[in-house]
Amino acid sequence: MVALMFGGVFGRRLPIPAIATGVVMIFLLKGLFVINPNEAIVLQLAGKYVGSVRSEGFHWVVPIYTKSKITLRVRNFESTHLKVNDHDGNPIEIAAIVVWRVRDSAEAMFEVDDYENYVRVQTEAALRNLATHHPYDAHQEAQLSLRGNIDEVARQLKHEVQERLFKAGVEVIEARISHLAYAPEIAAAMLRRQQASAVIAARAKIVEGAVTMVEMALTQLQQRNVVHMDENTKAAMVSNLMVVLCAEHSVQPVVNTGHAEKR
User: Fold this and answer.
1) The pTM of the whole model exceeds 0.85
2) Maximal CA-CA distance, the chain
3) For residue 135, which of 194, 82, 88 has the smallest C-alpha distance?
4) Using one digit for the tens of pLDDT, what is the confidence trace for 53-102?
5) What are the backbone dihedrals phi and psi of residue 138, each rounded to the nearest 5 degrees, phi first?
6) Is the Cβ–Cβ distance between 177 and 131 less than 8 Å?
7) Which residues contact 37 (CB under 8 A, 6 or more apart)?
């Protein structure tokens, strides 16, 4: 039938060997393919994994192989804003950015159903787990917190995400928290708490400086013999200096002119 068709077109019947050669050439041309930079081709034969071709350029394989293309480019994924409870039980909103790429094309293709969705789900699961192990703010000495130890938390997040994605042939290049905030229902209360903590810290610093300045003043007065003070006078002077140095507003000076005589 094919010979008759070509015969009708060209006015003569093509020989059977030429037709067979043309069919074979078409069949062999189906095995040609091109690989671009940072791409791979996964080859299968009758449902079995044969191998992967990762080198860029022009290639040929047996045409009966099934070819599946997969990209090896670096990609990034940003999770949704997750609402979780931190280590102290406070509801917070947290999100992360993960930079990743396919490390093993065969594992990415066959070990999981959809490796891109797998990256998304496992990243959010790792982020939830990390948030429950650390408080938003540290309230103890040397305590690791989500807000105060950004680099350490990022390293932990990368390690945990990598452990979950290793079986899918995915390499995690970087993982960092991109959003961190208290949940709206407690944001106002936590803001007041942070402001109170800041005021206490500032007061402690002021008192520490005031004590140092009073001590210096008393020491220099005694060393220079400016005035002789008994314990009551020292106590009064310390009290006055502490009031002046620690007061929030300017102190009005009072001049002591001595006791007035009654007539």
Assistant:
1) no
2) 151
3) 88
4) 777 777 777 777 887 888 888 999 898 899 998 888 888 899 999 999 99
5) -80, 130
6) no
7) 56
Phi and psi, residue 207, nearest 5°: -65, -40
Angle at which helix 231-246 crosses helix 184-223, to 10 degrees, equals 140
Residue 211 has a pLDDT of 80
Read off the amino acid at residue 199: V
Question: Has residue 33 got a pLDDT over 80?
Answer: no
pLDDT at 194: 67
Find how far residue 187's CA is from the centre of its chain: 22
Question: In Å, what is the CA distance from 14 to each residue of 9, 24, 28, 247?
Answer: 11, 16, 21, 109
Q: Which of 62, 174, 41 is nearest to 108 (CA)?
A: 41
| Rounded distance between C-alpha atoms, residue 33 and residue 56, angstroms | 10
pLDDT score for 156: 93
d(CA 58, CA 35): 7
As a whole number of angstroms, the distance between CA 171 and CA 169 comes to 7
Give me 184's structure tokens.
């709206």
CB atoms within 10 A of CB 11: 7
